[in-house]
Automatic annotation (TrEMBL):
Belongs to the leucine-binding protein family. Residues 1-24 form the signal peptide. InterPro entries: BCAA_transport, Leu-bd, Leu_Ile_Val-bd, Peripla_BP_I. Residues 25-361 form the Leucine-binding protein domain. It comes from Paracoccus denitrificans (strain Pd 1222). This is Amino acid/amide ABC transporter substrate-binding protein, HAAT family. The keyword Nucleotide-binding does not apply.
Amino acid sequence: MKKTLTTTVPAALIALGLAGAASAEIKIGASVSATGPAAFLGDPEAKTLEMLVEETNAKGGINGEQIALVLYDDGGDANKARTFATRLIEDDEVQAIIGGTTTGTSMSILSVAEDAEIPFISLAGAIDIIQPVKPFTFKTPHTDRMACQKIFEDMQKSGIQKIGMISGTDGFGASMQAQCKDVVGEYGIEIAADETYDPKDADMTAQLTKIRNTAGVQAVLNPGFGQGPSIVTRNYRQLGIELPLYQSHGVASDGFIELAGKAAAEGVRLPGTALLVADLLAEDDPQKPVVTAYKAAFEGKFKEPVGTFGGYAHDGFALLVDAVTRAGSAEPAAIRDALEQTSGLAGTTGIYTMSPEDHLGLDLSAFRMLEVKDGSWSIVE
């Protein structure tokens, strides 16, 4: 799927992907997983980018220049993402790229973007995307390493010293599993059981039974995204396991609760963003105006709940608009330099301050520890 979006093209042409963007002076490319196994992430990302381009152009664009969004759906396929990244740069001649719904597609896109020296803002979680720092690659979600640290902080406060871990073998799950193993010792916590599952598995009771039967386990952590964590959660309750269950920020959405079932998800904890608890934020929270405005706009336009993943796209677009505005130029090198100088930009995911050594710009304070209570998200005090 390809869409080219401007404010002057009839909607029918936009839908068919037949509209050109020659009249626009700023071209932004995007490759997201709007369909396929990661569609629950990529679909709201695509919708968010389209909505924000329309809103920005209606207000006069960036520095008086209109934006054209050239959007491809890679279906979660890393090879397609690489092909689309090449097409965006060579054929569509975009000045920056937002996308990479998953770790795999992000790694494909960044390899092309780095070679072409085109700024790329990833929407995926793995730390490998930005560490080591790559000159033209940035990202908006917290890293998987940060998620591990936030979870282990919470476990430590609860006196948990021994855990079981069950991880997806997808790119995100495997990366977070490795990052959790790397930092767990800093919190005085031992991983006593370590199981994995394929993202396509429909039942994880065997692995969970092994964890349940491991002596001394006080809690269970599930690094993963997609449907796997919802299945783990349902199986967990079916087995009658009463230990605390922690999930990753990879499933921080209302969709996770729906897939797992409200009863099964009750009590699950995970590190999430302010967007999931917008109505619960203090009035003086610097993120509140941003998250409430995005939530109102998205839900008003699409008649569906706003989610963390669309928020990642929101922040990617906000970072790009801010960079172009400050640079006074849409030249790729100028955008890259300005992104690296981002300071105090409030997004839905956190407040971004980047540097040559930090192409994420968030710390652990940007995470909120959340818990499912009565079928919805609450803030753990």
